[in-house]
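Sequence, please.
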């Protein structure tokens, strides 16, 4: 273990950052939280500029393994072929990455709960992709998994920067620490898988599908780790991330979009659950965190209709489409839905329970023809 603070890597070309807390939620806290949540309001105001500074990702970082420079030489040499390999760093409340290496693969738990939660969460996400989908880490080539905890002061977010996971501690008024949610860890690491496969552009409906895939595999990370079937699962993303002072249970509810929170400061969860409620907006990169609720509900409805383990049925279909040849960086909802139905027919047979549940899931959210792309409820296939 190395206790020296790593030097910050030199600037490189940038790509977009994926944060788990959407910008509109931070805006609400910053604008309306001064009286009830003064610490959280200040944290939200400071968090937004920080997010903006990191809004673009290092282009090269998305495509190379993030083995930390302070790892032993033998670890650096063997990491890519060693299976699950984790490195957890402590930023010591600075905004410099990666920070101090505090736990590496195979080492015993330490006295810092956030470190251990990050270590376990990275392992849970890795195991979902490896064991359920036969995918070896983020790039399918054994990419080591790196994370940094205790990022910034009262930092109200978690993000994947193309090389590693980064977790804030929250402000303790609205948000708790972000390492405590398996669905958040799975969500953010899934952005790495998405970047190495379909690489959906982060704008409009392709961006909403990017967020949707991350929510799907975030939820499945939690379900797989807990051995939960679809009927027993909560389908919440970020359950427990709010303090008891907030009237809300999670950041998003995949099964019932628009119901995750309803608070006098945060407002009501604005996610639509149907194409009739589709939100045309220039904010949030064209509503990527908003309209993802529509395919989220289609997936969750199909999974709960089927019952059993979602990663064995609907999850297999979604993963195959993600890594397949038909999806492009600009695939939209009306193009994506038929891909999943066709894949279900290939894997499970046309007219089977899985196939029909997926068809019904899409019809339930109003996606049944190309006419549904902009909120029009189209006719059936």
């Amino acid at each position: 273990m190395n206790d020296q603070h790593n030097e910050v890597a030199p600037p490189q070309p940038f790509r977009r950052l994926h944060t788990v807390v959407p910008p509109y939620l931070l805006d609400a806290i910053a604008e309306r939280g001064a009286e009830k949540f003064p610490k959280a309001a200040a944290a939200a105001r400071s968090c937004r500029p920080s997010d903006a500074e990191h809004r673009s990702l290092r282009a090269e970082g998305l495509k190379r393994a993030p083995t930390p420079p302070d790892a032993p030489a033998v670890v650096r040499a063997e990491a890519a072929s060693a299976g699950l390999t984790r490195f957890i760093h402590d930023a010591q409340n600075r905004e410099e990455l990666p920070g101090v290496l505090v736990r590496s693969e195979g080492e015993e738990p330490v006295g810092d709960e956030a470190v251990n939660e990050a270590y376990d969460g990275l392992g849970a996400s890795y195991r979902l992709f490896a064991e359920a989908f036969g995918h070896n880490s983020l790039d399918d080539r054994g990419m080591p998994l790196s994370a940094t905890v205790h990022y910034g002061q009262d930092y109200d977010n978690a993000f994947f920067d193309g090389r590693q996971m980064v977790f804030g501690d929250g402000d303790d008024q609205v948000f708790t620490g972000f390492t405590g949610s398996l669905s958040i860890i799975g969500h953010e690491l899934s952005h790495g898988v998405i970047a190495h496969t379909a690489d959906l552009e982060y704008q409009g409906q392709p961006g909403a599908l990017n967020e949707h895939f991350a929510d799907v595999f975030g939820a499945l990370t939690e379900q797989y780790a807990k051995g939960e079937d679809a009927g027993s699962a909560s389908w919440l993303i970020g359950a427990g991330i709010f303090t008891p002072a907030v009237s809300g249970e999670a950041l998003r509810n995949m099964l019932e979009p628009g119901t995750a929170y309803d608070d006098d400061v945060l407002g009501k969860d604005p996610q639509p659950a149907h194409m009739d409620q589709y939100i045309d907006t220039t904010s949030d990169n064209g509503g990527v965190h908003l309209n993802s609720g529509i395919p989220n509900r289609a997936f969750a409805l199909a999974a709960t209709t089927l019952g059993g383990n979602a990663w064995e049925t609907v999850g297999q279909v979604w993963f195959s489409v993600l890594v397949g040849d038909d999806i492009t960086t600009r695939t939209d909802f009306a193009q994506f839905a038929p891909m999943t139905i066709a894949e279900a027919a290939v894997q499970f047979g046309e007219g089977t329970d899985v196939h029909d549940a997926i068809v019904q899931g899409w019809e339930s959210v109003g996606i049944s023809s190309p006419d549904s792309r902009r909120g029009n409820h189209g006719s059936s296939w």
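The longest strand covers residues 86-90.
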